[in-house]
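hiii, so i know i said id send this last week but things got crazy w the move. better late than never?? heres the sequnce for the chain we talked about at the cafe, plus the structure i predicted for it. fair warning i was half asleep when i ran it
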Amino acid sequence: MRFDESTLRKLQSLALVASRARAGALKGERRSTRRGAGIEFADYRDYVAGDDLRRLDWNVYARLDRPFIRLREEQEDLAVHVLVDDSQSMDWGDGAHRKFDYALRLAAALGAIALGSGDRVKVRMLNSSEVAVSGPANLLRLLSFLDKQSPAGTTDLDRALREYALTARRPGLAILISDLFSPGGCQLGLEQLQSRGHDVAVIHLLAPDELDPQLAGDLQLVDVETGQTQEVSLDSGLRQSYRRRVHAWRDELQAYCRRRGMRYLRLSTDRAWDEAVLHEMRRAGIAK
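okay and structure toks below
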């Protein structure tokens, strides 16, 4: 997996958005709401005994005959957690529409944006492995890790998210990329991430034929994760009912995320991945 120079420049001109500031461990390029001895001027406060005289604004003192200390915004890094659903249901769609490949592209793009901003990135495949990187020089390491991944098995999203919330050492921006096909749902897991201090965003990814299946007649449907089968007779009326239920399901998830203060982005894999990052993620408030 690689980015051409033009795409990489566009990605690195963006920054991921954390709606609530998270204290970083290293000095990065992201502005903090904390006031300290960083670079950007933020405000003044009255001088008190013991303050560093080097931070005294002598020009203001000369004008007002009162000592004031210059406050500056500290620069800090953001912990970015990209959580990728690598269950078998993500192995769906043909060619560029394959959900898992699309999810990996999104994860790579998010990593490039974060590393370009001086943030720390951890990408976790919910069924298997993870990698943690920092600094733009480690983008190739992240891309190499993603190249080796493949979907398999089933994922209990609630359990996987709860376990990650309990083990992640630093709260930050947690971005879930998934089709959200999990019998137990994902709400409790997302709430656990929030309760541990994470700012949560959900990218809900589906293939075009999952939104509008081009099927008809007597069929045997097979669950790609469990192997369970279901005999159905699919006509135009049933297809229309299916489409209504899928749209209602996504609307319900979006409403839930909004109530909880989480960002929600629905994507179909027929949307070019770079347009999804450069336009849709900005519109959803995930990047700017």
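btw Residues 250 and 266 are 8 Å apart (CA to CA). thought thatd interest u
miss u guys!!
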